[in-house]
Amino acid sequence: MKRFLPRFVLIISFISLGVFFYFRVFPATFLLQERHKSQAKTRATTLNLIKPSFEDFVAYRIAHGQAGISRSYLSYYEKLTEYMPQKSEAHAMLGFCYYHARRNEEAVVSFHRAIQLDPDYFWTLYNLGVIYFNQGQYQQAAGMFKRALSLKREVTLKAIFASKIYGEIILSAKNFDYTIEKNLQVGYQDAYRLLIFSEDQMKGTKHVPSLTERNQVPIQFF
């Protein structure tokens, strides 16, 4: 009888614990999961309602060397970074929009955040380097261009084609003569050229492009 009693108590304890999980923990977990699903659905609906035309976005990018930035693009990527704060490409695209909205300080913050999340994406480092270069901050610009040039191109290409955020733009870019691989190759060439210009300026030489020449090398998303 003495041996049976502890076993009985143990069995009752396990049963009680099971009942507790069944009636308290499991329902709470289910409700939490349903809440997350509802929030995700609401966010998706919101994004779809404010999503701009990426075809227009790409068309302006090709025709003018920059994107036709309206408030709709800015609002979309602001909301995207709010809903997906760990997505580096969301911050990178927001930085791109801020820059073309002439909100340079906010663009720099967004690009830095994107780099923290993904330090191996060429275009983010390149874009931040271009901003510093145009502001005359040649030491910071050179640092960004060096980091960008040290990266493997295939890593950036893989990031572009694996991203759903970039994928929205790529689908629209199919209607244009827009080659992501070729643009990346040109980007590396421009980064090297701007690195040389930056280092020349740091040395005190005058071999620095005019403002007009600088504007021929815009920032890019890819």
General description of the model:
With 222 residues, the chain is mostly helical. It has a single domain, classed as Tetratricopeptide repeat domain (Serine Threonine Protein Phosphatase 5, Tetratricopeptide repeat). Helices cover 77% and strands 0% of the residues. It contains 11 helices and no strands. The relative contact order is 0.10. The mean pLDDT is 80.
CATH hierarchy class name: Mainly Alpha
The assigned structural class equals mainly alpha
* SS summary, helix count: 11
What do the pLDDT scores average to?
A: 80
Give the tally of β-strands: 0
Helical proportion, percent range: over 70%
Determine the CATH superfamily.
Tetratricopeptide repeat domain
Number of domains: 1
Summarize the structure.
This protein is an all-alpha fold.
What are the salient characteristics of this protein?
single chain; 222 residues; mainly alpha; Serine Threonine Protein Phosphatase 5, Tetratricopeptide repeat; 11 helices; globular
List the helices and strands and how they pair.
Elements: H1 4-50, H2 54-64, H3 71-83, H4 88-100, H5 104-117, H6 122-134, H7 138-149, H8 153-162, H9 164-173, H10 180-203, H11 211-214
Helix pairs in contact: 2-9, 3-4, 4-5, 5-6, 6-7, 6-10, 7-10
